[in-house]
Every structure is written in C-alpha cells, then in structure tokens.
Amino acid sequence: MVGAVRPRVSAVVAFAAMAIAAGSARAQQPLQSLTPSLADIARQAEAAKPTIKKATKAYTNASLGAIPKDEPAPVVAPPPRIGFESKSLGKVVSPEELVSLSEQKIESDRVAQESEPNWRNRAASLRKQIDDMQSRISALMVPNALTDADPLLKKERDSDLANARKGLDGLLKQWAKLEMSATEAKIPNGWLDPRPARQ
Asked: Which one is predicted more confidently, 147 or 66?
C-alpha cells in the first residue's frame, strides 16, 4: 500500500515541475513579440493623419483692391480721457480736479451747517477790524505840523499809513470772501448786516 502511494506522489511532483518549467520559459520570451515595433506605430500614425487640402488661391494687395487716393484716411478717435466721472459737472475730471471739488464741497457743507449766531459773530468781528483800521488811516492822514517838520517822523508816519492801507485791503478781501461763502451757503443776507462802510 505504501509502495502504491509513492508512485502517485512522484507523478504529481513531476507534473508540477513541468508546469513550473513551462511557466518560466514563457516568462522569458522577449517582450518584442507582445508589443508592436516602432515602425508599426509610425505606419499606423501615418495612416491615421487627416488629409489637408492645400489652398487653391493666393491673396495679394492687388487682388484685395487699394484705397482710392481721393478718399481721406479714416479718422481715429482719440483715446478716452483717464479720470473720474463728476456727477456735479457731468463730465470726466482728473484725479486732482476731483480732490479739489471734494474739498470745496466739504467746505461748502461745513459753512452751510453753521448757525445764525456764528455767521453774525464772524461778520461783527470782521466789521470791527475794518472800522478800527479805517479810523487808524483817518488819524494818520490828519496833518501834523510837528510831524511834517521832522523828516524822520514824517517817513515813519508815511510807512504806518502804507501798512494800514495794506491791512485794510486784506480785511476787505476777507469780507468779500465771507459774503461769497454766505451766498454759496444760501444764508439770509441779513445775517451779515450792517455792511462795513467803505472809504
């Protein structure tokens, strides 16, 4: 019985050895037989290329036609102006102009929000300075025999008179600016009354 089992085992072992040998021989076959050659790939690519139809007509300036000489060249529009749209002016303005307009608007709004007592006090203060300067000019213009006789005193008085007139001119410009601000702020004219007397 033991002797009968032994030949069967030997046959199974022999069969397994043959199967392993066949598998390793197959694994050692070159890869070339499994993948197409480079030449085959090139032939397939050439066959797959679409056929390109060549142009049958060449275009030149003569075939397109020239621009007639008597016609003016087309007018090219100037490039758009770079800036910002001003809603108050309804046009494009430069960044500097926009900043200036904004500052004016802020100042105008600030002036418009001031109360009546503020406007009246500003007008009264400026009016008093103008009256004082006019009184000083009047006093300097009164002839003085003692001052007129001394050249140094006369020169000093003439210099004081010139400075006073210059100061009055500056105060009157401030008053004109105050009136303009009041007009822009649409405040009643009576808030600035009485107006300073002008000599």
From this structure: 147
**Residue 196 contacts by C-beta under 8 Å, 6 or more apart in sequence?**
126, 127, 130, 131, 172, 175
pLDDT of residue 83: 61
Q: What pLDDT is recorded for position 175? A: 92
3-state DSSP assignment of residue 41: helix
Instruction: Please tell me the chain's helix, strand, coil percentages from 3-state DSSP, rounded to the nearest 5.
Output: 65, 5, 30
DSSP string for 51-104: PPPPPS----HHHH-PPPTTSPPPPPPPPPPPSEEETTTTEEE-HHHHHHHHHH
Provide the residue ranges of all domains of the chain, joining segments of one domain with +.
84-113, 116-199
Sorted by sequence, the CB contacts under 8 Å of residue 157 that are 6+ apart come out as 140, 144, 147
Q: HSE of 114 in the Cβ direction (CA atoms, 13 Å)?
A: 22
H, E, C per residue of 132-164: HHHHHHHHHHCCCHHHHHCHHHHHHHHHHHHHH
Distance, in Å, from the CA atom of 95 to the CA atom of 92, rounded to the nearest integer, reads 10
Distance in angstroms (rounded) separating the CA atoms of residues 198 and 171 = 11
Query: Is the pLDDT confidence value at 5 over 50?
Result: no
- One-letter amino acid at 120 equals R
Distances (CA, A) of 67 to 51, 70, 71: 38, 9, 8
- Angle between helix 151-184 and 95-113 (nearest 10): 90
Closest Cα partner for 157 from 144, 169, 170, 168? 144
